[in-house]
Amino acid sequence: MVIEKRDFIKKKFTPNILYKGGKIPASRGRFQGIDELNDFFTFADIRDGHTTVHSWDLIETSVREKLICQTILKNRRKKNYGPKDGNPLSFQVLDKLIPNLNQQELDSLIQKNILRLVEDKGYEFVNSKISSGIDGVSKIFLPHADAIATLTATGTRDFVATVSLECQEPELYKHSFIQNIYKQKKFKPLTAQDYAKLQGFPESFQIADSETTAKHQFGNAVSVPVVYNLAKALLKLIL
Predict the structure, then answer these.
(1) What tens digit of pLDDT does each residue of 72-121 get?
(2) Residue 117 is part of which domain span?
(3) Considering the domain boundaries, does residue 214 fall inside one?
């Protein structure tokens, strides 16, 4: 599958446009500029951001259903609802957070495979693990990305889009990605050979015959440029 990469100038944005509350996340800036739209989309119901795709973004859901999901997302990690880093929320709790909530609304989200009921605890998202993604997709990188975040040994759910996304409007960015890339299936999995190239291994490097084994090897490896520059710096101290 051919990847079409287009180069274009990225727009710059103020924090209050890109981030809720205008606060820049502490992790921001390692692989992305703090004033630019992300070059990747993460599929997760338990996180949020301008390029986080939720299950309720991918299927037909009402404004009210989206409100319920966002309310659960916003409150599930609050310590007054439980000790875990993500707790099921009971109907009684949700009823206080969402005006005029009725049982049928939650049942509908269960039928759509967005929520599930944990007995004697409450409601939580079906897609409750970041590593699992949604429908087998955890992250899709855009081909014009300047960098790709950490490759993991279990990164079998990481993909790269086969076309660039030139939309530069924050309000339309995610919708454009879903309609023009995700729903059109214009993305492909990152292969072990891709892992090798991204980590700086030469084309002559012999990778394992098994794709899974090779991904585990590269996912646990330190990239070639890092090893080279570290060794170079150490030699100056030793010699």
Answers:
(1) 999 999 999 988 888 999 999 999 999 999 999 999 999 999 999 999 99
(2) 55-130
(3) yes
DSSP codes, 70-96: HHHHHHTT-GGG-SSSS--B-HHHHHH
**Residue 22 counted as domain residue:** yes
37 and 69 belong to one structural domain: no
Q: Are 47 and 57 in contact (CB under 8 A)?
A: no
State how far the Cα of 180 lies from the Cα of 81, in Å rounded to an integer: 39
In a domain, 2, yes or no: no
Quick one: which of 111, 106, 99 has its CA closest to 59? 111
How far is 208 from 224, CA to CA, in rounded Å?
17
Q: Which tokens belong to 79?
A: 């310590």
Shared-domain flag, residues 59 and 120 = yes
The alpha carbon torsion through 82, 110, 130, 218 (nearest 10 deg) reads 140
Write out the two tokens for 64: 């009210």
Parallel/antiparallel/unpaired status of strands 115-118 and 122-125: antiparallel
118: which residues sit within 8 A by CB, 6+ positions away? Answer: 88, 124
More confident residue, 131 or 159: 159
Q: Is there a domain that residue 5 lies in?
A: no
If one counts the domains in the chain, the total is 3
